Amino acid sequence: MASAGVLTETKKITELRVIDLKTELKRRNLDVTGVKNVLVARLKQAIEKEGGDTDNIEITLSSDTPTKRTPKAKGNYIGLYRYCYAYFENVSVS
């Protein structure tokens, strides 16, 4: 029985993110260092030795795998200035 937070998906190896490539390489006890092209080549070589499809791969996505990067907060210097001014002047921030 599969756990509730795990999904499988078939993707092209070249479209995998670096984090996904490293996960697949770790699963196979392979080196996870290098740039994306090196990781792709290493994974393709491992899959070829296993006798699998070197273009597509079925990867397991768990619920804790990030799907998108969380955007960084953009600087709001006016708001920061108002907050600091209110803090130092003991005035409430509205």
From TrEMBL:
SUPFAM superfamilies: SAP domain (SSF68906)
Gene Ontology molecular function: RNA binding; sequence-specific DNA binding
UniProt keywords, alphabetically: Nucleus, RNA-binding
Domain SAP: 13-47
Compartment(s) of residence: Nucleus
A Pfam family annotated for this UniProt entry: SAP
RNA-binding in keyword set: yes
Name of the protein this chain belongs to: SAFB-like transcription modulator
